[in-house]
Each structure stands twice: as C-alpha cells, then as structure tokens.
Amino acid sequence: MIKIKNLTATVNDGQQTILNGLSLEVPAGEVHAIMGPNGAGKSTLSYVLTGKDGYDVTDGSVDYLGQDLLAMEPEERASAGLFLSFQYPLEIPGVPTMHFLRTALNAQRKSRGEDIMAAPEFLKKARAIAADLKIKPDMLKRPLNVGFSGGEKKRMEIFQMMMLEPKFIIMDETDSGLDVDALRIVADGVNALRAPDRGMLIITHYQRLLDYIVPDRVHVLSDGKIVASGDADFAKLLEKEGYDKYAA
Amino acid sequence: MTNMPHNALIEQLPHRRMEAWKWTDVRGAAVSEPQGLSAACNPTIAAPSGIDISTEGVAPSESVMGKLAVTFAHNATVITVPAGFKSDAPVLLSDMKSGHARLIFKIGKGAEISVTETHESGAASFVNIDMRFDLAQGAKLSRTIFHNDCADMTRISTAQINAWADAEITQHTLSFGGGLTRFETRIASLGENLKAEIHGAYLLNDKRHCDMTSYIDLGAQSAHIRQSVKGVVAGKARGVFQGKFHVRSPAQFTDAEMRHDAMMLSDTCQIRAKPELEIYADDVACAHGNTVGALDESALFYMRQRGIPLRQARALLTEAFVAEAFDGMADNSDFMSRITDWLEQNS
Questions:
Q1: What pLDDT does A248 receive?
Q2: Mutate to test the interface with B, among A86, A95, A111 (most CBs of B within 10 A)
Q3: pLDDT score for B31
Q4: Which residues contact A12 (CB under 8 A, 6 or more apart)?
C-alpha cells in the first residue's frame, strides 16, 4: 500500500539529516508500529509523508497506491486517503469543530469527484461517532481544539479520523496525554477501522498502546532508518531491553 | 456651491505633516481636483415615521473637515428622534457618492435608534461627510456602517458622538477601503455610565487605503468601553488604526479596553497603528493591545492535512479572525457573507 524506499530528508538547508535512507513497506490490511528513541526521526517521517513544509527530501521515493506521494500537495495526499493523527493537534480559533470537519470532508469528496455529504447525514454520523468516543456534543460546537485538554485533543483526532474514513492512517504518539480509560476508547475506535483495504502506521515511544492496538509488525527507527523489525512480541522485548543496542 | 480657488481649498485640507493625518494625506489625494471637492452632497435619508428631518443653520464642528463641510454644504440636515422613541426599523443613510454633507442626529431622552450607513461609490470622487450625534440621557444609538468604494475614491467620514448620562453606543463598521478613506469616530462622555461598543474591520486589496481613527474623550465616571478593530490587508494596500482613550480626572471607575489586530496577507502591504491611552483619573482599568501578524503556518498545514485546499484554509482562518469584531451584532449575516465573498476573491 505504501512503499518507502531509501527516504532521505534534511532540515536547515541540508545542514541536518533527519531521515537517512529509510525503507519500509506497509501492505494493505496491516498495522505497523514504529518505535524508537527521542530524536530518531519518528515525527519527521510523519511530516515528510504528509507534506509539511520545512523538510527537503534529498533522496528516495514513496509509492502510495501507485502514486508518487512526494509529488502531491498536502491536501491532495489527504484526499487520496492519507491521515495523520498529530502528536500535538493544532488549535483552530474561531472555526467550530463541526464546520471545520464538514469543510474538510466535502473538500476531500469534491476532490475525488464524489457528491458532497448533506448536513443531516453528516450530523447523524458525527453524533454516533462522538457517542462512541464519549465526546460531549457541546465540544463539537466549540472552535476546534481551543481550550481542550491534551486528552480531549487526542480523542478529537480519532473523531476526525473516523469521520473522514482514510485509507492509510499515521498515528504520531496518539497515546501521550491519554489516561487508561481514554486509551481504551481510542483503541476501540482505531481497531474498528482495521480493514483489509486500510493500512496503519503507529508511532509510539511505549509499548502500552500496542497492548490495545496489536500490530502486525514492529520496527525500530534509529538515526533516521529502520534498524530492526519483528512481530508484536518484539515490542515487549524492546520495552524490556530499551533501544540502546539499536543506537547508531 | 461656493467658488473657492483650488489652491486656497487645497491649503485647508489636512496633510501628512499633521500628526493626526500623517498616514492619511487628504491634501495629496485632492491635488488632482477630484469631482465633489467643492460641491454639496445630498444623502438619501429613509427614516421610520415619528422621526423629523429638517434643514437648519448650525454652528460648524471644530474639526478641519467639519469646517470644510460648512463651506460647501452650508446648512445641516437635522434628524430629530423624539424622547422615548423606539422602532425596529433603522434610519437608512445612502447616496453619499460625491461632495460635502452635514448631518446632525438629535436623539431624545431614553430614545433607541439604529442608523445604517452605506458609503459606496463606483465612480471616482471626493466625499466629506460630517456627522454629529447628540444622545440625551439614557438614549441608545446603534450604528452599522458599510463601506466599499472604487479604487480612486477619496472619502472622509467623521462622527462626533456626544453622550449624556446612561447613554449606550454600539457601532460596527465594515470597510473594503477605497483610494483614500478615513472613518473617524469621536465620542465625548458628558454624563456618567456611558456604555460603548466600538467594533470594526477593514479588508483591503490592491492599493486601497482605509484609516479607522477614534478618539474617546471620557469626562464623567463609570464609563464602560470596549473597542476591537480587525484588519486584513493584501496586495499593496494600507490599513491605518489610530485609537485614543482620553480619561479625564472626573472619569473615575472607567473600564476601557482597546484592541487592534491586523493580518498581513502579502509582503507588500502596510499596517500603521497607533493605540494611545492618556489617563488623569487614578481609579480606572484601561488597556490597549495591538498585534500585526500573518496566518499561522502550522494551522494551515493542519487544515490541509485534513484535505482543505490552501486557499480555502486561508479564507477560513481569516474569516474566523475577522468575525470576532461582529460577534456582538444582532444580525451579522450580511457582513459575514460580504466578508466570505471578499475572502474567496482575495485568499
């Protein structure tokens, strides 16, 4: 589904290399986890894949469903089904959550040549998903993420993800800021989205989230590349032994 | 019509060497002898029944543009709102397209009136509207001002609002600018408990210019003032904000806040801002804030990651920024749809 080959990315006009020949393939229907120490390049990978400014891709390629992902604008990648659950979701002052999300959903649909979703259908869907995620209806009327707690913001990311029904999901430290109950609610939401035509990349420091969302493969990212891979049990081993032996 | 040699007339116009006009050079704009510079303007006034409209010889206002208005408009149109008057229908002011006009609103004790002003012209001209509002005790005035001129229009509109005790003033101004534009609001509190909400926004493209200037002169105690002006400037346009709270020594317990926040959408636009507080009373709460910035790049990326195209993301963020100025309006739908249209063209 997504094939990353020898991806190399720099910041500060090439002075600093963050991704250093990273190769990774996530087939449709699989959930892969990326673990690694601070500064390994985990968040950079999520930003380069989604097209944030400020990173220069100096080598490598990313094939996403047969398309050259790196040649697409961020909104084109989103419309093609790529979704990033942000480590630090942004506050959007003055734009009510529901208005934001309906604008996003219909922009994606329009870009794919689909009909826009009418307000009643949208509201019905939003109410049902909000109830599943235990999001209070009044939060949906407030400006997106403004004044929300860290946990509420993370839950709102999952809400958006379930509304937009993306094809490939990147979750960047989604578990940080969540208490055990919220973690279970979020994981239930994510697991409900597991499907044969959908792929997921879960970026996390800790193995905790992987108890709830069990991955098919676990990779260690260190110094900008994948240095080791294994199955779900490999995460438990990493938690026990630490990342030191994989450090460059 | 008064005949005055062009040079003598030009000499009377405010210019950039005057501190209050340093960013809005009326003299410079009038050198080409624009139409209307030495003519009278007769605005169309539609008022609900019970309001009297007459023409009277009234002493000129103190301001430089006010004096000029007398020279060409002579008498003032006086709109008298009787004590205790109430109506859902506003006074509508329009057709202020060329020349000088003098308008005086006398609003009686306890009367409540809305005034909707449309300052709009599609042909180049010079307009000078000199207004005065006298609010008797407990009177309530709500002004809604819409402005959109062609790019080579010069327009100065000045309102002096004199408020006796317990008066309330609400003002919302939306301007898309013109060649050279200034909306000046001057409020004087003559009695205690003045409540004033003075809000506005300017959205400017090309080489348009809009100046929102205000001078709030507080001479009595317990005034409550809230002012928020939002600016969005693109192209080579220029936005000007000058705001002053002058709190005189009897004006104890004044509670006044002034904000001007502007967003620059291009590298070539300009914002000039001068917020001022001058305070002689010792038991007051006064604040002013002024920010100038650009759209938040991180927020834009977040929106694009959700599939919202860049132009639409910019428009959505900018609209939310401007909308705050009109949150308090009973019905802001007309203003908001005009803002949305503008942003669709200019984001």
A1: 54
A2: A95
A3: 87
A4: none
